[in-house]
Amino acid sequence: MTLGLFFFGFVVGWATFLESSYGTQTAKVIVYNAMWFEGLLVYLALGMVANIIRYRMWVREKIALLMFHLSFIVIIIGAGVTRYAGFEGIMLIRENSQSNIIYSADAFVQIYATDGKMEYKYDKAVLMSDVQSPVLKFLANNKFETAYKKFDNSGEVKISYAGFMANAIDQLQTNVADGSSILEIITPSPMGGMDTNYVLQGTTLNKEGFLLAYDYPETLKNAINIRRNGNSFTIEAPAELNYMLMSDQSSGSIPADSVAGFYQGRLYTFLGQNFVFKAHHPNAKLVKERAPKPDMGMDVLNLDIESGKEKMQVALEGGQGKIPTPTFIELDGIKYRLAYGAKPVETPFYIFLRDFQLERYPGSE
Predict the structure, then answer these.
(1) pLDDT tens column, 280-314
(2) Is residue 26 one of the residues assigned to a domain?
(3) Which terminal CB of the chain, N or C, has fewer other CB atoms within 10 Å?
(4) Is 85 exposed, middle or buried, given 0-12, 13-18 or 19+ CB atoms closer than 10 A?
(5) Strand partners, 338
(6) What is the pLDDT of residues 22-73, one digit of tens each?
(7) Given pLDDT bands bounded at 50, 70 and 90, which one contains residue 191?
(8) Same domain, 144 and 293
(9) Among 85, 114, 142, which residue terminates a domain?
(10) Would you list the DSSP string of 279-291?
(11) Which residues does residue 312 pair with via DSSP β-bridges, in sequence order?
(12) Looking at residue 83, what is its pLDDT?
């Protein structure tokens, strides 16, 4: 029992160093959420119960010792209930609006596949770590795999772990031989300042307030659709699009569902959301690199999808507590919607935010 307590203290201290060096996910996957750590807590709880019985702590003279042991047991039971029956998440509500959607604090791998007639759904909470030490990598064990039968029963589709990078940011490489056309779009950051977004040809940019598609194979009805024609671009939006020339402050508008020129140096406004077309990179490539600071970038999970003789690797951006942007692909005649991050959970009730007040006091800045 005494050795168990000393070992518990050592492990918790070690987990603190892991968290400060590699992040919360690493500490959880290696220590806090590991089966051996849960076994250690159960062993300590049983040891406490054994000591209560062995030393007859219910007698009056030992009430203080009894309360200490019982409190420890109650804490472990509460931790177990929270671990297996609890749910943690956030609800985003704008002032004077309501919501019944909670986004999970845990990161989920979310997979939806369909051939137009049948569908397959899969979601699983995962903890990922990109530690490089062989010992820590073995303890983290990121690998997972799922499979389902093809809708025509001609075989099996396998989806498996291929790699992970925490706090990744996009680094743009220009004038490369195997590059693609990439648009550089500037949008306001929720944390203040500006975000730089890179949109590859044939993909979409999903930001709060609007969806932007660049040369997407099909015209998306609820999105801002941008098309390339040589070195010029056109834009079409499902609602009125306002713009202001940043050079002389003159302004104009584009009616809904109308095709117009899309130019650099203009501040566009769509349903209250601002964005700027900063640059076009005709032969460029995006390379994922680890951010210099832990609070920058997004986690990136790579998945291998294998269907018959066809195989594809997909990079999903997201992470714990982050609302992911779905990735849409098509492989072997099956369309996929893939995401890695917070999972939306519908509640049986709505919460209405009537008024939001932020009060500050000394030390809260």
Answers:
(1) 998 898 888 887 776 777 889 999 999 888 899 99
(2) yes
(3) C
(4) exposed
(5) 111, 327
(6) 888 888 889 988 889 999 999 988 988 888 888 888 888 888 888 888 998 9
(7) low
(8) yes
(9) 85
(10) EEEEEEEEEEEE-
(11) 305
(12) 83
Which of the listed residues 63, 85, 107 is the one where a domain comes to its end? 85
Domain membership of residue 59 (yes or no) is yes
Q: Are 126 and 107 in contact (CB under 8 A)?
A: yes
Is residue 213 a part of any domain in this protein?
no
Q: How far apart are CA 14 and CA 23, in angstroms?
A: 13
β-pairing verdict for 273-290 and 156-174: antiparallel
41 assigned to some structural domain: yes
Could you tell me the two tokens for 166? 């925490």
Q: Which domain range does residue 324 map to?
A: 89-168+288-365
Q: Do both 57 and 114 map to the same domain?
A: no
- C-beta pairs of 289-295 under 8 Å, 24+ apart in sequence: 289/168, 289/169, 289/171, 290/165, 290/166, 290/167, 290/168, 290/169, 291/167, 291/168, 291/169, 293/167, 294/23, 294/167, 295/167
Provide the domain count of the chain: 2
Task: State whether 72 and 119 are in the same domain.
Answer: no
Q: Is beta strand 210-214 parallel, antiparallel or unpaired with respect to 224-229?
A: parallel
Question: Do residues 81 and 120 share a domain?
Answer: no
Q: How far apart are CA 245 and CA 277, in angstroms?
A: 11
For 30-36, the CB contacts below 8 A with 24+ separation are 30/129, 30/131, 30/136, 30/139, 30/140, 33/83, 33/127, 34/139
